[in-house]
Amino acid sequence: MDKAKIKSWFDHAFACGGGPDELLEADRAILARVSEQVVKRRMATPAILFLESMRPLNFVGSQVMHFLKPFLTLVFTETDITHLAQALEKRASVPFLVDIIEQQAADRQAATRPPVDRPAASCPSTPVASGFSTPAASGPSTPAASGPSAPAVPAPRPQP
Fold first, then answer.
1. Model-level pTM greater than 0.85?
2. Which of 12, 75, 96, 136 sits at a 20 to 30 Å CA gap from 157?
């Protein structure tokens, strides 16, 4: 064999590419539907953690979906499972799915967050929800200073 031919073969011997890795519009649509369901169930953070940790195994995960297709058809349609498995075979699918989950979760959080109309610095003498005053307002907490609703705390016993 020619030395240049061997060198050329070794240059591409372990290449991971070798196919169209770009997501099609159908792939983006099915991944968007998956992300909507994840965000709707408020599982964005666990899903992102799972996807990021399993990023190198996305092809294996897609093959597992093909293997579990008979069981998954009880919940999803067969075409949806096939399209999702084919989309997950591509390396670009996991970063796209993580990005869209993060975007939709941020949009949902911004839409559901109530507006805040209180001042930035709170007054230290404002009563806390439990009915006790903050330590800055009443000094050290003792049963006599806390009022009748405070639980009685026994004094520490002296050590012999």
1. no
2. 136
